[in-house]
């Protein structure tokens, strides 16, 4: 019973965080969520809880697909193209890890995603605001 209340509180808190987040924060939350779910999938894999492992890997895959699809390769150029390819690679590795029950492949994906998340955290506030305003103006012009 107490766990139900805690989980409801967490969900409510997460919904509030999402509602108040700017695009930079949302992306950071997605990256961190993917890393957390990789860790959960590893635990489930170690415990041989294969259905749970599958759910976590599916969630990580969905997050990476979302991150990949939000890239604008026209604006981001080669860097965005490289990131797109890296997300594709991570998605493939997640699939292989799921099929082969391979913890090292999950570690590989986490080790590829962590520096991206860390770099995202290091973006200066001024640059975040500038990008947010540019994106907003672009949407309003359409």
Question: What do you see in this structure?
Answer:
The protein has 142 residues and is an all-alpha fold. It has one domain (26-141): Four Helix Bundle (Hemerythrin (Met), subunit A) (Up-down Bundle). The protein is 89% helix and 0% strand. The chain contains six helices and no strands. Helix 2 packs antiparallel against helix 5 and helix 3 packs antiparallel against helix 4 (73-100).
Sum up the structure in keywords:
142 residues; mainly alpha; Four Helix Bundle (Hemerythrin (Met), subunit A); elongated
Using the 3D structure, state the CATH architecture. Answer: Up-down Bundle
User: Approximately how much beta-strand content do the residues carry?
Assistant: under 5%
Give the uncertain stretches in residue-range form.
none
CATH class identity: Mainly Alpha
Number of strands: 0
Rg over C-alpha atoms, rounded to the nearest angstrom: 17 Å
| Domain tally | 1
Could you tell me the mean pLDDT?
A: 87
Helices and strands, in N-to-C order?
HHHHHH
How many DSSP H or I helices? 6
Family: Belongs to the FliS family.
Keywords: Bacterial flagellum biogenesis, Cell projection, Chaperone, Cilium, Cytoplasm, Flagellum
Subcellular location: Cytoplasm, Cytosol
Main location: cytoplasm
């Amino acid at each position: 019973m107490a766990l139900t209340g805690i989980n409801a509180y967490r969900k409510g808190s997460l919904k509030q965080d999402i509602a108040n987040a700017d695009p930079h924060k949302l992306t950071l939350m997605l990256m961190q969520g993917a890393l957390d779910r990789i860790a959960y999938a590893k635990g489930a894999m170690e415990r041989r809880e294969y259905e749970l492992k599958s759910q976590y890997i599916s969630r990580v895959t969905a997050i990476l697909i979302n991150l990949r699809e939000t890239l604008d390769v026209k604006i981001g150029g080669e860097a965005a193209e490289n990131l797109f390819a890296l997300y594709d690679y991570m998605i493939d590795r997640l699939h292989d890890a799921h099929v082969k029950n391979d913890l090292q492949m999950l570690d590989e994906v986490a080790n590829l995603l962590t520096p991206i998340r860390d770099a995202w955290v290091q973006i200066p506030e001024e640059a975040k605001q500038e990008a947010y305003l540019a994106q907003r103006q672009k949407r309003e012009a359409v």
